[in-house]
Design goal:
Elements (H helix, E strand, L loop, with lengths): L2 H26 L15 H13 L3
């Protein structure tokens, strides 16, 4: 193995390492959290609309 081949191999390994490191940092710092955007149940409009049904027992 020549010096040129070993330096090429080293550069390829370092490039792979840096790529994985950047991907890890990007994913760790991603501000999007989908669980904050999901609906958590019926809102006030639903309750206002269905309030009369619950009191009359018409389920």
């Amino acid at each position: 193995m020549t010096i040129a081949q070993s330096s090429t191999r080293l550069r390829l390994r370092l490039n792979g390492f840096v790529t994985r490191w950047h991907r890890l940092i990007r994913n760790a710092c991603n501000p999007y959290r989908p669980e904050l955007h999901y609906m958590r149940g019926p809102g006030p409009k639903w309750h206002a609309k269905h309030l009369g049904r619950a009191e009359s027992g018409a389920f």
